[in-house]
Amino acid sequence: MTAPYIPITFITDSKYAIEEWENNGWINVENSEYLRATVYQLRKRSAQMSFIWVKGHTGNHGNEQADRLANEGANKQEDDEIDLSIADEFNLQGAALGIRTKNKLTPRRKTTSNLDITRHALKNLTAIWKGCRNPDLPKKIQQFIFKTLHGAYRIGDYWTSIPTFEHRAKCSHCQAETETLEHILLECPNIERTTIWNLAKHLWPAKHGEWPQITLGIIMGCGNINKIPQDQQNEENQTEQRRENKKGAMRLLRILISESAHLNLGPEMRQNDKRHATFRTINKQSRLQTDRMTAKKIIHKEKYTNLVTSTWSDIITTNTNHNKNWAIALEVLVGITLPRPSTNEAPR
User: Fold this and answer.
1) Average of pLDDT values for 267-296?
2) Which residue has the higher pLDDT, 236 or 3?
3) Closest of 323, 308, 287 to residue 245, by C-alpha
4) pLDDT per residue over 96-105, tens digit each?
5) Residues near 335 by Cβ (< 8 Å), separated by ≥ 6?
6) Could you give the C-alpha distances from 302 to 65, 75, 244, in angstroms and in order?
7) How far is Cα 89 from Cα 128, in angstroms, rounded to an integer?
8) Is residue 311 a contact partner of residue 291, using CB atoms and an 8 Å limit?
9) Average pLDDT over the chain, rounded to whole?
């Protein structure tokens, strides 16, 4: 008999023997009296135990020996006396509540549809939910993407079945018959929306390739973007500097797409000074200042500082002599500006 403080690994070819029958209250389980007594003996032990299933009759020495002993026991003329008693504190009755009351969840149709749209927009995409919690995105953007994936915004068809509120189903700007999130973010011809996306496109450095064609799927999956338009070089042949620049470019792309989409939907849409709203959002409210403050006072690592530098260096200009350390030299903030859009360019 193995001492109760010694760990044991049980290797068996019987899936039936290692099923979680106990949680089901041993209901409709054959030979349950023997299995319950066995579980009782195992629970008395203090050491760790684990179970491994192997396929039977494949030449496994231990398994073959176990089969031989089992056959000898089955062919005995008289049964052995086995103690099947169970202490009261281990003799639990009934099934586990969580097992008996668990209902099968029905996927939301809108969520399933949006996940398919996102997978189609970004090839080789797997961890969509992990992407919407990408640390490059602030909490408000993460919540925006999460609600968008679930179709949780009260727009369009949501109002059609509510008496006296049916008019809210239409777009207030162009009176589109049924307003959708895709219409708000990408299709509505209002000047504010086109201006935001034109400014984001203007910010994107040409050295990284053309600005991508923005779709609803790309917006919902922007936290998973892991490739820039101009990314033809083999990963193994890239220099360390090239890899850092690529990470910064992908991070910038995620920021531009997510901030622009959120700005189209958010309360900032009601502001009069719409022309430079994208720049205010990126520069002052969250992104550039937050990145520099984090690099200076929170994450004191060269790797993060290099990431901040590679993210913003292609789209800012400095009027100071501290160009090399601008990411952590907070006193030179007044010398760092984002490029201004041309005021003569009519929004498309």
Assistant:
1) 52
2) 3
3) 308
4) 655 555 566 7
5) 318, 319, 320, 322, 326
6) 59, 72, 12
7) 46
8) yes
9) 77
The CA distance from 202 to 192, in Å, is 15
Q: Encoding tokens for residue 239?
A: 């220099």
Pair of tokens at residue 33: 């009296």
Of 206, 208, 187, 190, the C-alpha closest to 251 is 208
| Tokens 């913003």, located at residue | 312
DSSP state string for 86-102: --GGG---S--HHHHSP
For residue 215, what is the DSSP state?
-
pLDDT score recorded for residue 26: 73
What residues pair up with 330 in beta bridges, in sequence order?
Answer: none
Per DSSP, the chain holds a count of helices (H) and strands (E) of 13, 4
**What angle, rounded to 10 degrees, do the helices at 139-150 and 109-121 form?**
110
Q: Which two tokens stand for residue 155?
A: 């727009």
- Using left for φ > 0, alpha for ψ between -120 and 50, and beta otherwise, residue 26 falls in left
pLDDT at 52 over 70: yes
Q: Cα separation of 238 and 248, whole Å?
A: 15
Binning pLDDT at 50, 70 and 90, where does residue 90 land? confident
User: 8-12 and 49-53 as β-strands: parallel, antiparallel, unpaired?
Assistant: parallel
- Name the phi and psi angles at 337, rounded to 5: -135, 150
What token pair was written down for 192? 């504010």
Structure confidence at residue 174 (pLDDT): 86
Give the pairing of strands 336-337 and 49-53.
unpaired
**DSSP state at residue 283:** I
The DSSP code sequence of 216-261 is HHHHHTGGG----SS--S-GGG--HHHHHHHHHHHHHHHHHHHHHH
C-alpha 76/C-alpha 296 separation (Å) is 78
Helix (H, G, I), strand (E, B) or coil at 149: helix
Instruction: Find all residues with CB under 8 Å of 218, minimum gap 6, and list them.
Output: 121, 122, 212, 225, 257
pLDDT, tens only, 218-262: 999 999 888 776 655 555 556 777 778 888 888 889 999 998 999
